[in-house]
Amino acid sequence: MSLEFRSTPDFLMDNNIVSLGVLIRMISRAPHFASSPSCRTVVVIVGFIFVQPVWSAAEVSPWGRLITSAAIVSNPRTHKIYAANEGAGSVTVIDAATGVTHTISVGSEPIAIAVNCATNRIYVANDGSASVSVIDGSNDTVIATIPSAPLPYTLAVDETTNRVYVTHTYSGSVTVIDGTTNTATSLKVGDADGLAVDSKAGKVFLSTYEDPDIRIVDEATGAVTRVSVGAHIWGMAFDESTSTLFLTHTATSEVVALDEKTRAISTIAVGKIPCAMAVNSAARRLYVVNYGDETLSVIDLQSRNVIAILPVGKHPQGVTVAPESNTVFVANVHGDSVTIVDGVKNEVIGARAAGKHPYAVAVDPATDRAYAANYGSPWVTPIAPDE
């Protein structure tokens, strides 16, 4: 399905490594998800990257599309990293403690992954085959393949109810998977890209890039509440400790803070074209990647003030944080690097080579070792702060 841009934010043009003529024919895939190292607080990162897939090199003309940064996740309880290898139809599994790596065959064009730490199940959205693969983390084998609506895009897990929510940009619905029975139902709540879950309150947050409203879905009743926050929301991050949903607003260079309980809204000015975010609830910090001016904004969650602005690499796309050390990792998609930040001192430690087009990043909190997802083979690059 072709994307007809009603507006063209700067990042849609900047974040493009194919010709403008090809850009006009891009298919639309909006946000992306990445879980925080703690399985309790769900963090959603919505983002866009235009690339030419390496596996289509034989085609007569190149094509590009929007991809998701939910392509790599960490299970902090097992210290395993799971990364989607879109062009290979597989998932790479890395044991962060031993370095042992192997791959698992899944569906066609896997693009997003979510982990249920409580059940040790890993869920993979297969964009090309309209399905979700369920992996048993105890032996890393696929135990179920669940059909879904076309073009599954990103996922989030509610560990309290053992449900998995899957968005589809064009289906007008969200797929809901029962983690006990591995059966799926459809929740008719409209198109959705961005996704976050508050398991304590039983709420699901949904966004669509052009829609000025955030939808809050009651898991128990399916009732939908709309809150206007402005169109062109790129990233979402939920802070469970304060029941606050943070959203990056690309057009205004702000982070919108939405109080889940009162629906009160406030804004925090950040850099140009803010995109990905990561919350460290223990340190009371929010890290915001600014794609346009290639910086990282550090926000004190107590005062809601920006306390530092740090330079990173070319076109930062993804971010994660190790909760105990407060080490921050930023994936620079067009810099082929990951910038490492000391979150205690708010200082840049340095940049590390991270393979071709690193667009997402995950970290094992026990070892502080990060891994970047690359758009192309090799699909995963290990990053170490002390290299």
* Cα separation of the termini: 44 Å
- CATH class group of the domain at 10-277: Mainly Beta
The geometry reads as: globular
Number of helices: 2
DSSP strand content: over 45%
Record the SSE blueprint.
Elements: H1 10-14, H2 20-23, E1 43-44, E2 72-75, E3 80-85, E4 90-95, E5 101-105, E6 110-116, E7 121-126, E8 131-136, E9 141-147, E10 152-158, E11 163-168, E12 174-178, E13 183-187, E14 194-198, E15 203-207, E16 213-218, E17 224-228, E18 233-239, E19 244-249, E20 254-259, E21 265-269, E22 274-280, E23 285-290, E24 295-300, E25 305-311, E26 316-322, E27 327-332, E28 337-342, E29 347-353, E30 358-364, E31 369-374, E32 380-383
Antiparallel strand pairs: 1-18, 2-3, 3-4, 4-5, 6-7, 7-8, 8-9, 10-11, 11-12, 12-13, 14-15, 15-16, 16-17, 18-19, 19-20, 20-21, 22-23, 23-24, 24-25, 26-27, 27-28, 28-29, 30-31, 31-32
Question: How would you sum up this structure, described in words?
Answer:
This protein is mostly beta strands. Helix content is about 0%, strand content about 50%. The longest helix is centred in the first third of the chain and has 5 residues, at about 10-15. The strands form 8 sheets. The protein has a 5-stranded antiparallel beta sheet with strand order 1-18-19-20-21, with no helix packed on it. The chain has a 4-stranded antiparallel beta sheet with strand order 2-3-4-5, with no helix packed on it. A 4-stranded antiparallel beta sheet has the order 6-7-8-9, with no helix packed on it. The model is unreliable at about 1-35 and about 40-65 (pLDDT under 50). It has helices at about 10-15, 20-25; strands at about 45, 70-75, 80-85, 90-95, 100-105, 110-115, 120-125, 130-135, 140-145, 150-160, 165-170, 175-180, 185, 195-200, 205, 215-220, 225-230, 235-240, 245-250, 255-260, 265-270, 275-280, 285-290, 295-300, 305-310, 315-320, 325-330, 335-340, 345-355, 360-365, 370-375, 380-385. It contains 2 helices and 32 strands. The chain has a domain at about 10-275: YVTN repeat-like/Quinoprotein amine dehydrogenase (Methylamine Dehydrogenase, Chain H), CATH 2.130.10.
